[in-house]
Design a protein that fits this description.
44% of the residues lie in helices and 21% in strands. Among the domains are: 94 residues, Beta-Lactamase (2-Layer Sandwich); 88 residues, no CATH class; 236 residues, 4-Layer Sandwich (Phosphatase 2c, domain 1). 30% of the residues are buried. The protein starts with 6 loop residues before the first helix and ends with a helix. It has a 6-stranded antiparallel sheet. The protein has a 5-stranded antiparallel sheet with strand order 6-5-9-8-7, with helices on both faces. The protein contains 16 helices and 20 strands. With 609 residues, the protein is of the alpha+beta class. A hairpin with a 2-residue loop joins strand 10 and strand 11. It is rod-shaped and about 175 Å long. The longest helix is centred in the N-terminal third of the chain and has 64 residues.
């Protein structure tokens, strides 16, 4: 699927193109709707013109037909009184009548009179007549093409439906249709007058030229539209027929006369009918294209500043990714772009502060790492090693190996865990370390030292509710016993390889920093002449979880100690931390991890074993 890669492409794909498609679809449907309306209007107009022309011809035909109708039902008396002669004389006066022919049968016992009358250009006429009593039937219409006359003929019957004669009235066809062919629309459109057999009585070409062609022409043989029109006019009295194409190449309309079996037909090019629509379509296309160009220019002009601002932000962001900070952007608008620039300026300031803070944290980390022992302790059969792994740059865990200045060979071991982690915990840890280091060098028992440290720490922590756990251990030079105080810290594990046993060095005691009146009690455990491994850790070791939220636990630590009891404390620590890392997988380290392992051997010889 195509994905725009730039703002300009998105503008074209998501704004310009949909608008163009919308205008195009709207224009197509609008064109179809307007075309339908125009065609209907043209059809109504054309049918009205045809109806008017047909009405004029019908009126011309209706005059002689009305007089012929007067002969219907005449009695013998009326006939003998010469009424029919009066009607015939009236027929002679009808404009357009060029001749009248009557035939009266001899059965009526009257003299046969044949009348044949022709009007010349000088007004002369001839006629024959036979005097009989007449009746009348509906007229029968025929056409004489060579003379261009229309003959109205009828057979006359009396009241007993007995034939008494016939009469034919000849009408000048050109004079009959003169009002029609002299009208403006007749010369604009391709027009025809056809009969029910499809013969063309007249069309837009001159009738004399038509007569010169030598034979009657038929309608419906020239093209497909004429065929469809002929079929339609044989089935309906009026209608509109469309030719092929969109718009149609030609459109025809037809209308039947009432007084003659003739049909008025006009055919016009579709372009002429739809000329206003074609002009509208051209104007619409030009207007649409102009609007799109103007819209594109307007959008480009509107988005130019936006695009430049976004490019500036993008360039500054790339530099920022490489640690280069640019000057703040000038915010000149209050729209979304202005908000973006303002937010980027704010972000840049915060990133500068964050980078400075990160550098400060890195320095704090380096400083905090100097608070931890820089090397393992090894003396008089005692080997101690420790490690702290912080989940942030700095942490609250702490361990320390302190050699007594007043009692050579005596080792003070402290492992602490300040509540929380981060810079605040690191600062409190530094305070606890300083208090422990200062107090253990002064005279007094282990309990007195921890009591003093707790009291001093409470002066700083009671106001904020901070506290710290502490496991304090003293190892005597003769290795006869160990003394410890547990101030809310996790119990230590004492492993004796010779016996394959684990003991937890417990004891009661409140965490440091909560109650300045708390009195701590010293715990003592006598050592045998076997080698011992003492592990002191923070709760971050046992509580570390993997991706399945399973805790690492103390049993895994004991198993690692048992499997690696012959190794140096530093190697055992490495094994434990590796197992924790493998166990954790992709899960985050949730707390600081601190481990101290002390190997206690009565003699150097036992230690080497």
């Amino acid at each position: 699927m195509y994905q725009p890669k730039s703002l300009n492409q998105r503008t074209v794909v998501f704004i310009i193109l949909p608008i163009f498609l919308f205008l195009t679809v709207t224009g197509v449907f609008g064109f179809l709707a307007v075309r339908r309306v125009l065609v209907e209007q043209w059809g109504e107009t054309a049918l009205a013109q045809l109806e008017k022309a047909a009405h004029i011809i019908d009126m011309e035909l209706n005059r002689p037909k009305h007089l012929l109708a007067l002969l219907d039902g005449m009695s013998k008396k009326d006939f003998e009184n010469g009424v029919h002669q009066y009607i015939i004389s009236r027929l002679e006066q009808v404009p357009g009548v060029t001749g009248i022919t009557t035939q009266w049968p001899s059965e009526m016992k009257t003299q046969e009179i044949r009348m044949r009358r022709h009007f010349s250009h000088m007004g002369q006429r001839t006629y024959d007549s036979t005097d009989k009593t007449l009746g009348v039937t509906p007229p029968l219409y025929t056409v004489e093409y060579n003379q261009q006359n229309v003959i109205l003929s009828t057979r006359l019957v009396n009241m007993q439906d007995i034939s008494i004669g016939s009469i034919e009235v000849q009408l000048d066809f050109e004079q009959l249709i003169a009002p029609t062919i002299q009208s403006r629309w007749w010369n604009i459109y391709k027009a025809y007058i056809v009969d029910n057999q499809g013969n063309i009585l007249t069309q837009t070409i001159n009738s004399k030229q038509q007569a010169a062609q030598g034979s009657a022409q038929r309608f419906g043989v020239s093209n497909e539209l004429e065929k469809k029109t002929l079929a339609a006019l044989l089935a309906n009295s009026s209608g509109i027929v469309f030719g092929e194409g969109i718009p149609p190449e030609e459109i025809s309309g037809f209308y039947h006369l009432s007084e003659a079996p003739w049909t008025m037909v006009i055919i016009t090019p579709g372009e002429k009918v739809l000329q206003p629509l074609i002009k509208f379509r051209l104007a619409y296309i030009l207007t649409t294209l102009s609007c799109i160009v103007i819209l594109l220019w307007f959008i480009r002009s509107s988005f130019k500043q936006t695009t430049q601002s976004i490019r500036q932000v993008s360039t500054a962001a790339k530099k920022l990714a490489h640690g280069e900070f640019s000057q703040p952007f000038l915010v000149s608008s209050k729209d979304e772009v202005g908000e973006l620039l303002h937010s980027f300026n704010t972000m840049t300031k915060q990133l500068q502060r964050g980078l400075q803070l990160q550098k400060a944290m890195q320095i704090a980390k380096e400083v905090q790492m100097t608070f931890l022992p820089q090397a393992d302790y090894a003396d008089n059969g005692v080997v101690a090693s420790g490690i702290s792994l912080y989940c942030d740059e700095t942490g609250g865990d702490y361990f320390d190996f302190i050699e007594s200045e007043t009692h050579p060979g005596k080792l003070h071991v402290a492992v602490g865990d300040v509540v929380g982690h981060g810079i605040g915990a690191a600062l409190l840890m530094a305070t606890v370390r300083a208090l422990v280091r200062a107090r253990v060098q002064a005279p007094g028992s282990a309990a007195e030292c921890i009591n003093d440290i707790n009291r001093y720490l409470c002066w700083d922590t009671l106001q904020y509710g901070n506290f710290s756990t502490l496991f304090y251990l003293e190892v005597e030079p003769d290795l006869q016993a160990i003394r410890w105080i547990r101030a809310g810290h996790e119990p230590a594990l004492l492993f004796t390889p010779a016996e394959n046993t684990f003991r937890e060095l417990k004891g009661t005691g409140l965490v440091l920093g909560l109650d300045s009146d708390t009195q701590y009690t010293e715990n003592i455990f006598p050592l045998t002449h076997s080698r011992h491994l003492l592990l002191i850790g923070s709760d971050g070791v046992w509580e570390q979880e993997n991706e399945q939220q399973e805790a690492f636990g103390k049993e895994r630590v004991k198993e690692i100690l048992r499997e690696n009891m012959h190794l140096e404390p530093s190697e055992i620590l490495r094994k434990i931390t590796e197992e924790i890392h493998i166990f954790r997988g992709n899960a985050d380290q949730i707390d600081d991890i601190t481990l101290v392992i002390i190997a206690l051997a009565p003699t150097a010889h036992d230690f080497c074993q």
